[in-house]
Amino acid sequence: MSVLVAVxxxxxxxxxxxxxxxxxxxxxxxxxxxxxLALLQxxxxxxxxxxxxxxxxxxxxxxxxxxxxxxxxxxxxxTLTRFVSASKTIAIYGVLRARMDDARRxxxxxxxxxxxxxxxxxxLSTAFTPMVVVRTQLVVxxxxxxxxxxxxxxQIWSARVAVGKAGTRTPxxxxxxxxxxxxxxxxxxxxxxxxxxxxxSLPDWPGGGxxxxxxxxxxxLVPGRPSHGCIRLRNSxxxxxxxxMPVGTPLLIR
Length: 254
Hints:
The chain has 254 residues and is mostly beta strands. It is built from 2 helices and 20 strands. It has 2 domains: 2-134, SH3 type barrels (Roll); 136-253, L,D-transpeptidase catalytic domain-like.
């Protein structure tokens, strides 16, 4: 994960005010070469930063700060940003929008990892590293038992998958890939595993019920619905995915 830290620090241009480029749009959001926070000039200004398909901005937390239900210091607090994710790596936040409040503070709308799934909130931009743009998206279709990886809207990988069984279904929603590893748990989980920000319906499951994407030592169960919420792939497929999908990729489970 040190590589991710380096990327977040080196690509620092996005968060620096005073060097705004024209607010060019690409696929409905502020284009990657623009300086989105510098575009916020007046209270009430708001810009869309991610569509979570072709352009997604991510950032890591640099200090604990309240996440609120609205972009206002007086809004109800949901939780705090954190440095380390539930999968024991740098906590990555997907950044959806930016807004300037009446006090001219700049807020980021983020996807909030943790239970319950699907939360979004607002936190001050000063609590995050500069934003990095990700062009990939992973889509898992539970009905078709298939996953596909896209880069800039073009499919570059697909495979059959196994998902959660009745009672422990793989949760629908928008999530992120926040960690990737090799064969850290032995052959049961195959040669690679990705940890996501999605949670299964098993609160006492090791690791807090994190939904993983991993290989298997039972390829005959793929495709199918045998798991406790994780997404299983044949080992050859997860190896190919590991070469193509960066940490920070948005994940859509439908």
